[in-house]
Amino acid sequence: MAEFKKHDMNTAPEGAKPLLENSQKNMGRIPGLHGIMAESPQLLEGYQKLHQLVLETSFDNDEKTVVWQTINVENACHYCVPAHTGIAKMMGVSDDIINPLRDETPLPSEKLEALRTFTLAVMNKQGNVSQEDMAAFFEAGYNNRQVLEVILVLSQKVISNYVNHIAETPVDEPFKKFAWSKNQ
Length: 184
Description:
The radius of gyration is 17 Å and the shape is globular. The two termini are 25 Å apart. The chain is mainly α. The protein has helices at residues 17-27, 32-37, 41-55, 61-74, 80-90, 95-103, 110-124, 131-139, 144-167. The longest helix has 24 residues, at 144-167.
């Protein structure tokens, strides 16, 4: 397996330096994932742009967390589940939502459970969802916009989850207390 360098401002390719500065400014540090991605400034830029677009979706913080963590857990991402646990806590998301996502147990509301179920359907059926999948999602109160926004979040998470799997990105210090592994 190839080893991937976790870049900082001194080692990053020129095209990645402003992107890492952006990470430092917005997060107070350079996340390990961003340091790995910096090897390809285009990938890091794409990831950062997708992340900003996800923040601008119609989903509230609870819903964003449901979609992010559903994908992270399904993909068994050792890095993103702890990171998004910490992020969810910073966003004010309740442990009543965070823990069931991590543990793959029922969520506290039918609407959030419908969002998780639909997200899993989009992932596992590679977008070939059934009319029943769509009807259940719409019945829960979602619409065409949120169908497309689930795909947007999935696009972002494919980048981060796959990079973390391939690069074996170490979990950042602030999130180590949220270490996680997939239930078997």
